[in-house]
UniProtKB/TrEMBL annotation:
The chain crosses the membrane at residues 90-108. GO terms for biological process: cytochrome complex assembly. Residues 294-399 form the Cytochrome c-type biogenesis protein H Ig-like domain. InterPro entries: C-type_cytochrome_biogenesis, Cyt_c_biogenesis_CcmI, Ig_CycH, TPR-like_helical_dom_sf, TPR_CcmH_CycH, TPR_rpt. This is C-type cytochrome biogenesis protein CcmI. The keyword Transmembrane helix applies. It comes from Serratia liquefaciens. PANTHER family: CYTOCHROME C-TYPE BIOGENESIS PROTEIN CCMH, FORMATE-DEPENDENT NITRITE REDUCTASE COMPLEX SUBUNIT NRFF. Pfam families: Ig_CycH, TPR_CcmH_CycH. TPR repeats lie at residues 164-197. The gene is ccmI. Residues 115-272 form the Cytochrome c-type biogenesis protein H TPR domain. PROSITE patterns: TPR.
Length: 403
């Protein structure tokens, strides 16, 4: 409404500039007429003759005055029979109408009225669009509605540029519209406002992962590794890390991340098959044989006599320097001797794969409660630190007890 009021005021002002000067009519002429000028000249000339006579310069003053009067009479203009008529006010109406028509025509042609009306319509639809986005059961937005939502979000962020949720939503809109620039810039703003938010970091990392810029991919890798170090069970982080590594050709890390995801998924989860196919594809791309560590476990006579009826065999592999295991596997307690193998699917973290180790140390423990934490009285055995190339067999005898 304010916009149209401004337009009306401007049109009235322009019309006034056209009409007012034409309507002004003065009954008196401001310029000196010819008759007035002649009279002024006559008086000045008389004054000069008087001065000349006093100085003795002129001797025949009466004759000169008479001649001056005759010249004045000859130069008096005749009275004009006609006077200029004022302009008819109605004659100005077509000009004003033409001004209005031309002005509005130019605005409709170049002023973007359609875009303004569309923007106003989007503003009116924003509450409904936001509600549908927040409601998972609502009808999904069409591509046109997503674009409208993006326009409304940009407008809202002009008024409140510290709204993190709107920046994140705009980033997702950019991803949905395949607009990498909008998505990256929006999540970058959100990340600047709250760099500690997990949701913001995940969204930003996903955008950087999908970017065609290698530097963006590297930044995403750094962010994801930092997040996985904070929580190595976060499925979204693992999924993004695997995808990022696969896209950059780091197939070992991708395989490791997917294998960790397989261990975290509940039984009969439909996502497991997709992840397994991804692992096979990564292995094919890597063109390498699967690295395996073979382990043979035996019991000492004392451990055999103390073997519980039920329990769990906990196998952990370290690199000999870091106490945090590289790979872990649990098996139900069964007959001994027992042989099995570990590979990258048993890795604890995708950035520490078994295939990346050059030396390993194996520890096997019998746990009665199935927990990873050792308890007093648990029987265990350890191997020496051995070199590892991917095909070794290591023998471990369980012959000690946790004090």
């Amino acid at each position: 409404m304010a916009f149209w009021l401004i337009i009306i005021v401007l049109l009235v002002g322009a019309a006034a500039l056209l009409v007012v000067p034409a309507m002004r009519h003065s009954g008196k002429s401001t310029a000196a007429s010819r008759d007035t000028l002649n009279k002024a000249f006559y008086q000045d000339r008389l004054h000069e003759l008087e001065q000349d006579e006093q100085q003795g310069v002129v001797a025949e003053r009466p004759e000169l005055v008479k001649e001056l009067q005759q010249n004045l009479l000859n130069d008096i203009p005749g009275q004009q029979d006609t006077q200029e008529k004022p302009i008819n006010r109605w004659a100005l109406v077509p000009g004003v109408a033409l001004l209005v028509v031309v002005t509005l025509g130019f605005y409709l042609k170049t002023g973007g009225l359609a875009q303004v009306l569309d923007w106003q319509q989007v503003e009116a639809q924003m509450p409904d669009l936001r509600a549908r986005v927040a409601n998972e059961r609502a009808q999904p937005l069409s591509m046109e509605e997503i674009a409208r939502l993006g326009l409304g979000l940009r407008t809202a962020l002009q008024q409140d540029d510290r709204n993190i949720n709107d920046w994140m939503m705009l980033g997702r809109v950019g991803m949905a519209l395949n607009n990498a620039t909008t998505a990256t810039q929006a999540f970058a703003h959100a990340y600047q406002l709250d760099p500690n938010s997990l949701e913001v970091r995940l969204g930003y990392a996903e955008v950087l992962t999908r970017s065609n810029d290698p530097e963006d991919n590297k930044q995403a890798t750094q962010m994801l590794r930092k997040m996985i170090a904070e929580d190595h069970t976060n499925m979204r982080v693992l999924s993004l890390l695997a995808f990022n590594a696969f896209e950059q050709g780091d197939f070992k890390q991708a395989i490791g991340a997917w294998q960790v995801m397989l261990k975290l998924l509940p039984a009969n989860d439909q996502r497991a098959e997709v992840i397994k196919r991804s692992i096979e594809q990564a292995k094919t791309q890597a063109g390498e044989e699967t690295v395996k560590l073979g382990i043979n476990v035996t019991l000492s006579p004392q451990a055999t006599n103390a073997l519980p009826q039920q329990g769990t065999l906990v196998i952990s592999v370290t690199d000999g320097t870091n106490p945090v295991p590289v790979a872990v596997k649990q098996l139900p307690l069964s007959r001994f001797p027992l042989s099995f193998s570990l590979d990258d699917s048993n890795a604890m973290m995708p950035e520490r794969l078994l295939s990346a180790q050059h030396q390993v140390k194996v520890r096997v423990r019998i746990s009665q409660d199935g927990l990873a934490t050792p308890h007093a009285g648990d029987w265990f055995g350890e191997s020496a630190l051995q070199n590892f190339s991917g095909k070794e067999q290591i023998d471990v005898q369980i012959n000690k007890q946790v004090p």
